[in-house]
């Protein structure tokens, strides 16, 4: 069948195109797990004969994918020894203007993101930026988008800063046998970062001024009320459900206190006793009607507050993720509370608490939830992490001797790789082993730090790129671009980078990098130039997604806390895309002049 051609492409090429289109559709319009979608695509390409077994599994043995997996352990050592916390504590300060605040924020974040996980850096900074912004008198929404932008622009400054750089450099090494230097993108990346910082300051009016969602949760007495069951109440001896005191008009029972015994979530079959205290969440005015209808009285002391949390319960803030199965449903529609042993207390959207019973609110991506949880609830399970983002983790790393040791290990890893003493993969393995030997992290912490879902996506991206190249799609697309753009290498480079920037607004930047690598490589060779310069530009472009909150995981991290709307990213992001694309093409061709093929 491979000999059958239609519009210049083979049968297998059309199977690959259909697979890519279906994959993108699944990622854009369904809630199917990304790793499952990529594994399914690999399986389909294998079954249909587009790839053989060795090619289908090549992504899992790719050196760039292995490096990413090992770097998770290195980052775990840095995180658990408090390196990030130390840097945050000493770098932000108290700038006296918005311009200085943006610079003081974006530059250290970009520096950290050059060597660490962008997501980990932003997750650490979110709460700090919210507190810092209050201290400076600046709305958090004016700083959280710059925070996310900085992490992306900093990540492109080194090969280990962002996965597409590792993927593209790994594919380049496979094609040419030449390894890129770990600091190959540093000068172009720093130039684009400087342009990005200045652009954010210049376009500050395009950033929204929004109240953070959790401000609606500062005083819990505004949305919870505590009522007492008097000793002569006629419902004593009945269960909560029999007494009609569980799901009431305007709210729900979130906690039952038998003397000093706190029961949460309160089950419907719990018997009522004289002196019991019932804590309700919802519309307070309607809940207070229970005093008349059920003979309850106001408690003399409201014990349920943010500053007074008993040892057996805690209030935590979480944000509904894009793609969460909770989106479009109410908490009452499913068993989420019961299955995870937590209770929804209140919901806020775009900085304002929603004035209705929280269990009746149809949830949207970015909604802020106030949850009553067990004190040691595991928020890192694959299911929980796919639904909600928690930023108020009680676990704080201790800063001490381990902080210095892990920092030295990281610096040595980058230095030895940069000066060519040994390949990055070797350096990463040695650094990960050193983190364990010097107890910067435990073996359990190291294994838990490896995000296998992400690794599956990276491996799938490599295989997808291989299929695009093997079936001739890359060569055909490269020729089509040359037909449209002519033989000017700068114009061709800009066109492919523009397409990469657009695509990465909607799909994984790793997938975009793997997909566009063979196209850019083929285009460069057809024009008669070494692909190196073209690929450096591609690295920066596929990590330059500023216009949609789904364009980067870090955008999704700040979407809820900033109280943003989808359009907020487009207002400033579309201009940022154009500015950084122009800066990228300009600086890359200065630092790495085009070299004709010999």
List unreliable stretches of 5+ residues. 300-311
What class would the helix/strand composition place it in? Answer: alpha+beta
Radius of gyration: 27 Å
Q: Strand-residue fraction?
A: 5-15%
Q: For the terminal residues, how far apart are their CA atoms?
A: 36 Å
What does the overall shape look like? elongated
Largest sheet: 6 strands, antiparallel
Number of strands: 13
The overall pLDDT average reads 80
Number of helices: 25
Helical amount: 40-55%
Descriptive report:
Strands 3, 4, 5, 6, 7 and 8 form a 6-stranded antiparallel β-sheet that branches. The protein has a 5-stranded antiparallel β-sheet with strand order 11-10-12-9-13. A two-stranded antiparallel sheet has the order 1-2. Helix content is 53%, strand content 9%. The protein is elongated, with a radius of gyration of 27 Å. The chain contains 25 helices and 13 strands. The protein has helices spanning 11-29, 34-47, 53-56, 58-61, 63-80, 83-91, 98-113, 118-136, 141-155, 163-176, 186-202, 284-287, 290-293, 336-340, 382-387, 401-418, 424-437, 443-449, 452-470, 473-485, 489-503, 509-527, 532-542, 553-559, 566-591; strands at 5-6, 9-10, 224-228, 247-248, 251-258, 261-263, 277-282, 297-298, 314-320, 343-349, 352-353, 368-373, 388-390. Mean pLDDT is 80; it is low at 300-311. By secondary structure, it is an alpha+beta fold. A hairpin with a 2-residue loop joins strand 1 and strand 2 (9-10).
């Amino acid at each position: 069948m491979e000999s059958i051609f239609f519009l210049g492409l083979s049968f297998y090429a059309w199977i690959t195109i259909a697979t890519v289109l279906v994959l993108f559709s699944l990622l854009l319009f369904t809630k199917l797990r990304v790793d499952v979608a990529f594994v399914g695509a690999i399986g389909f390409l294998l079954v249909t004969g587009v790839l053989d077994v060795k090619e289908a599994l090549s992504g899992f043995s790719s050196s760039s994918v292995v490096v990413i997996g090992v770097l998770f352990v290195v980052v775990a050592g840095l995180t658990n020894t408090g390196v990030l916390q130390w840097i945050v504590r000493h770098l932000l300060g108290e700038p006296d203007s918005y311009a200085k605040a943006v610079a003081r924020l974006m530059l250290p974040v970009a520096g950290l993101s050059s060597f660490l996980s962008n997501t980990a850096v932003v997750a650490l900074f979110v709460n700090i930026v919210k507190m810092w912004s209050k201290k400076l008198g600046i709305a958090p929404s004016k700083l959280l988008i710059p925070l996310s932008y900085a992490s992306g622009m900093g990540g492109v400054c080194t090969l280990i800063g962002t996965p597409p750089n590792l993927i593209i450099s790994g594919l380049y090494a496979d094609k040419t046998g030449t390894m890129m230097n770990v600091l190959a993108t540093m000068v172009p990346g720093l130039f684009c970062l400087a342009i990005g910082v200045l652009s954010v300051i210049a376009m500050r009016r395009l950033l929204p001024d929004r109240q953070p969602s959790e401000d609606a949760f500062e005083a819990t007495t505004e949305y919870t009320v505590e009522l007492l069951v008097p000793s002569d109440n006629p419902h004593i001896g009945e269960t909560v459900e029999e007494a009609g005191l569980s799901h009431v008009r305007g709210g729900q029972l979130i906690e039952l206190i038998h003397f000093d015994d706190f029961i949460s979530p309160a089950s419907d079959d719990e018997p009522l006793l004289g002196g019991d205290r019932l804590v309700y969440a919802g519309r307070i005015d309607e809940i207070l009607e229970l005093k008349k209808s059920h003979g309850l009285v106001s408690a003399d002391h409201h014990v349920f507050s943010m500053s007074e949390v008993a040892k057996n319960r805690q209030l935590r803030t979480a944000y509904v993720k894009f793609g969460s199965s909770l989106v479009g449903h109410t908490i009452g529609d499913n068993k989420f509370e019961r299955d995870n042993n937590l209770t929804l207390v209140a919901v806020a959207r775009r900085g304002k608490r929603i004035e209705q019973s929280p269990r009746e609110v149809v949830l949207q991506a970015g909604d802020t939830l106030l949850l009553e949880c067990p004190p040691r609830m595991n928020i890192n399970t694959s299911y929980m992490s796919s639904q909600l983002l928690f930023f108020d983790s009680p676990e704080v790393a201790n800063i001490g001797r381990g902080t210095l040791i892990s920092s030295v290990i990281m610096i040595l890893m980058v230095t030895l790789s940069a000066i060519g003493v040994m390949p990055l993969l070797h350096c990463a393995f040695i650094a990960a082993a050193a983190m364990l030997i010097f107890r910067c992290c435990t073996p359990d912490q190291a294994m838990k730090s490896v995000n296998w879902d992400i690794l599956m996506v990276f491996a799938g991206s490599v295989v997808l790129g291989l299929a695009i190249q093997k079936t001739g799609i890359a060569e055909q697309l490269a020729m089509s671009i040359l037909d449209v753009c002519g033989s000017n290498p700068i114009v061709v480079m800009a066109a492919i980078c523009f397409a990469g920037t657009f695509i990465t607004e909607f799909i994984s930047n790793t997938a975009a990098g793997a997909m566009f690598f063979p196209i850019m490589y083929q285009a460069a060779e057809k024009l008669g130039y070494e692909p190196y310069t073209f690929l450096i530009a591609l690295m920066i472009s596929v990590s330059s997604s500023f216009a949609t909150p789904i364009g980067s995981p870090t955008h999704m991290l700040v979407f809820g806390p900033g109280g943003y709307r989808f359009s907020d990213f487009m207002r400033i992001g579309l201009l940022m895309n154009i500015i950084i694309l122009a800066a990228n093409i300009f600086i890359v061709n200065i630092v790495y002049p085009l070299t004709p093929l010999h």
